[in-house]
Design brief:
Keywords: Membrane, Transmembrane, Transmembrane helix. Belongs to the fatty acid desaturase CarF family. It is a multi-pass membrane protein. The structure is a single chain. This protein has 13 helices and 2 strands; from the N terminus they run H-H-E-E-H-H-H-H-H-H-H-H-H-H-H. A two-stranded antiparallel ribbon has the order 1-2. Strand 1 and strand 2 form a beta hairpin. The longest helix is centred in the last third of the chain and has 30 residues.
Length: 314
């Protein structure tokens, strides 16, 4: 799909040389290509679950035969949900408690070194961008490779990604612990090191490295909050007004923006903290290039396990 440009072609304008005309046409073509939507409205409507339309007033038929293509009645989604175990629940609880303890401790220890300046703002922006990119890498890797039947990581870490594609609204039914446990776990080693630095380094070394410490601390906060932000991007009813405002200003991941990822076969827009990096990474063909290289080296097909579960309708 291309976007119509409001400027007529060179042949219909005066005052441009042949070279100038060619340059303008090239610039116009590039602008049209860059501004073209990643997914069209029709693709979004036909190939993703309409989460903001629970009564299916505008959704095309979402069933193949008598079996649903997605949603909580999908057989694959039900099987995956049943694999959530008490052991996994315990791991999430422990990670949330440890992460919160470390985060609060680090914040208290950092308070006396805090200085409001431009470098702190840069640390915050860098932390957001790092978290957004990290969320994309983890999301892409878990969506694209591996299988639920792999030992340890399959049921514990890949299962939620498979369930989420078949039943995107399942995350809105998860409580705080189930939603955030794994993301909190990722931050524990970094937060532990920050607390250790603040407790053992002398004041001179802490002052010298404080902006790096602040960068990693803020990055951890954004990483820890990523799946909560992701949950909000699937919540179309009952969100607090301040969350909606953050989404509308694209400070956190907007709902409409994230719908692009949920267009089957879920091969783009993987960054889910703010989503700021999705468009440039897509235009650079970053994920598809990685997939081509890995497939050439290993012979593994991207999203093969994801497709297997999506087809498990009965």
């Amino acid at each position: 799909m291309t976007l119509p440009l409001p400027i007529p072609p060179c042949a219909k304008r005066d005052g441009l040389s042949g070279l100038g005309c060619e340059r303008f046409e090239y610039a116009s073509t590039m602008a049209t290509t860059l501004l073209a939507p990643v997914k069209t409205e029709r693709e979004i409507l036909e190939h993703s679950m309409t989460e903001d339309d629970p009564n299916a007033n505008v959704q095309p038929p979402s069933e193949v035969g008598n079996q649903p293509r997605w949603g909580p009645r999908h057989r694959g989604a039900q099987e995956l949900a049943e694999l959530y175990s008490p052991g996994k629940r315990l791991q999430e609880w422990v990670c949330v408690v440890v992460c919160c303890t470390l985060c609060i401790s680090a914040g208290i220890l950092m308070a006396k070194y805090l200085r409001a300046d431009a470098s702190l703002l840069l640390a915050a922006i860098a932390g957001v961008l790092t978290a957004d990119f990290a969320s994309g890498v983890v999301h892409w890797a878990a969506d694209t490779w591996g299988a639920v039947d792999l030992p340890i990581i399959g049921k514990n870490f890949l299962r939620p990604f498979r369930e989420h594609h078949i039943d995107p609204t399942s995350i809105t039914r998860h409580d705080f612990i189930e939603t955030n446990g794994d993301n909190f776990a990722i931050t524990i080693p970094v937060l532990a090191r920050i607390v250790w630095q603040l407790l053992t380094y002398d004041k001179y070394h802490i002052d010298e490295q404080f902006h790096w410490i602040a960068y990693w601390y803020l990055c951890c906060i954004f990483v820890a909050m990523t799946n909560q932000i992701h949950k909000w991007s699937h919540t179309y009813f009952g969100l607090p007004a301040w969350v909606v405002l953050l989404q509308e200003w694209h400070i956190v991941l907007p709902r409409r923006h994230h719908r692009i990822h949920h267009v089957a076969p879920h091969e783009t827009y993987f960054c889910i903290t703010t989503g700021w990096l999705n468009w440039p990474l897509e235009k650079l063909h970053f994920w598809s290039t990685l997939e081509t290289i890995i497939e050439a080296l290993t012979g593994c097909k991207p999203r093969a396990d994801d497709l297997k579960w999506a087809q498990k309708r009965s």
